[in-house]
Amino acid sequence: MAVQMRREQPSAALADEVVIRGSGRPLKQSTLRYKLLSIFSPITVLILWEIMVRLGLLDYRFFPAPTMVSLSLAELLMSGELTEHILASLGRVIAGFLLGSIPGIVIGMLMGWSRTCRAIFDPIVSATFPMPKIALLPLVLLIFGIGEFSKIILIAIGAFFLVTINSMAGVMNIDPVLVEAAHNFGARGARMFRKVVLPSTLPYIFTGLRLSLGVSLIIIVATEFVAANKGIGFLIWISWQSLVTEKMYAGLIVIAVLGLLFTYGLEKLGRMLMPWGRDITEKTR
Amino acid sequence: MQAKISARQITKRYPVKGQEFTALDRFDLEVGEGEFVCIVGPSGCGKSTFLRILAGLYEPTAGELIIRRSSGLNGGAPKPLNSMIFQEYAIFPWRTVLDNVMFGLEMRNVARRERRAIANAYLEKVGLRRYKDRYPYQLSGGMKQRVSIARAFANDPEILLMDEPFGALDEQTKTLLQQELLRMWEEDRKTVVYITHSIEEAILLGDRVAVMTAQPGRNKHQLRVELPRPRDPKIKTTVRFTELCYEVWQGLESEVVKSMETD
Ligand SMILES: Nc1ncnc2c1ncn2[C@@H]1O[C@H](COP(=O)(O)OP(=O)(O)O)[C@@H](O)[C@H]1O
Ligand SMILES: [Mg+2]
């Protein structure tokens, strides 16, 4: 059905009838236009950039042309250097993420469910949560040294708090009437947890995971700036220091792509685990 | 005849801001086996509170509640004592229609194949068979309440407890669901305690109507609805129906006025 309507020109001063007809215009058209627009705008920026560098209007030492960056990215890939950096960062992020979020889910849900647990953990969590976790880097380095573990720990700390707080909010926001219904139909203990509490909290847990993934990427890059000899952060930092800016840009692209892939993967997983969630899938976007 | 449910002098107080708030005050109700009893009262008078006490979800502060089991006595399989149908539907958003209807059976460890068969039969009865793989967000309010009704009936309890189940539905859907409910109830005539704020609904469905006072909820008066069964909405056009409605309203009017004043 067409939504667009056309109004007949009211003739002279007074028309004795107003006629509104459907335009018959297909609806698809408009969405396609917006899609094309959003594809063309970044491409235009890239082309303009390229032209400006070639004309000497932009300094290539600060803003290397997109073709130069692509070339450098290709070289890094071929030599296997990039893979090494990616694997290093990826390993740290995944390890830290798991190490932080799994206890986060457990403790957060316990805090949501039991007032006692909340009374015990809440002061600690509330006091430490607002602190930017990256500020802990020197302390963590002091305790664990410059090895892999200190980077993993720092990511774990960042992930832990976000996941804990969101999981707790999830449990506390369970619709009480659903718990009553489940109880009325005989759900108790472990089954109440598995059949009601967990699925109802899952969207919140995923929100926590998504947020902590973003934080993990910030932390990994920052720690690798100062305390690594491998990893994407290290690549960006060392390219800056030696003024190989194409490589620095290549590093930025890689970290952006990693972020995108993570977000996309988590969203896919969320949809697989929560096929009931209309609002959930919209929220993750 | 021994009553199926005897609630005597049931009182419920809630702690509100360090004070005691009396929601229900020495409320009495007797319900016979297979009887359909409707409770009518102004909003906030403690109807839901009373029903949740019957369901064992809340504890009464004072008073005595006796429910007499009729199944599982002589070695037979015990049925669940009661199943509730909530005004808010309270179906699980993460379960499909079919899985929602099977919930009670699942909790009772009924074999998968059997519970599927039972659930399908009840989905057929409420006309939702085609929607069995949908999730609640894909259903209208009326369909959600049908799922909730099927879930309760499929659980085959001794008592059905219904808390303004059609209160949030539009008039047409409500009439249709009342008809469906009456049809399903006629099949095995379970004991029902049904809460509503609609006088017409109470007369249409109930064998007896108990009227409650405004908060705190006490007994106002009761009347027997001696309309023939099986009933259908056509009965609303009879003079007797209108008279009964008026009789209920006479008791209720002053209470509704009171409940407005306290707001
Ligand atoms: N958990 C609770 N804590 C405190 N007050 C409550 C609680 N539940 C209900 N009440 C109060 O008790 C009164 C009766 O509530 P309810 O039983 O829901 O009434 P009804 O179902 O008749 O509208 C209301 O005034 C309500 O605000
Ligand atoms: Mg109520």
Describe the structure in your own words.
The complex is a heterodimer of chains A (285) and B (263). Chain A is an all-alpha fold and 285 residues long. Chain A has eleven helices and two strands; from the N terminus they run E-E-H-H-H-H-H-H-H-H-H-H-H. Chain A has helices spanning 28-54, 66-78, 81-113, 115-128, 137-144, 148-172, 176-184, 189-226, 232-241, 245-273, 278-284; strands at 5-7, 20-22. In chain A, strands 1-2 form a two-stranded antiparallel ribbon. In chain A, helix 8 runs parallel beside helix 9. Chain B is of the alpha/beta class and 263 residues long. Chain B has helices spanning 47-54, 97-101, 103-107, 112-125, 141-154, 171-188, 199-205, 239-262; strands spanning 3-16, 19-32, 36-40, 62-67, 82-85, 159-163, 191-196, 208-212, 219-224. The mean pLDDT of chain B is 94. In chain B, strands 5-6-7-3-8-9 form a six-stranded mixed β-sheet, sandwiched between helices. Chain B has a three-stranded antiparallel β-sheet with strand order 2-1-4, covered by helices on one side. Chain B is built from eight helices and nine strands. In chain B, helix 6 links the parallel strand 6 and strand 7. Chain B is 36% helix and 25% strand. The N and C termini of chain B lie far apart (42 Å). The A-B interface holds A 175, 177-178, 180-187, 191, 195-196, 199-200, 202, 274-279 and B 52, 55, 57, 80, 82-84, 86, 88, 90-95, 103-104, 107-108, 135-137, 151, 155. The structure holds adenosine-5'-diphosphate and magnesium ion. The site of magnesium ion has 4 residues of chain B, from helix 1.
Helix content of chain A: over 70%
Strand content of chain A: under 5%
The helix/strand class of chain A is mainly alpha
Biggest interface between chains: A-B, 23 and 24 residues
Distance between the termini of chain A: 29 Å
Tally the helices of chain B: 8
Strand tally of chain B: 9
Structural class by SSE content of chain B: alpha/beta
Apparent shape of chain B: globular
Low-confidence stretches of chain A: 1-6, 280-285
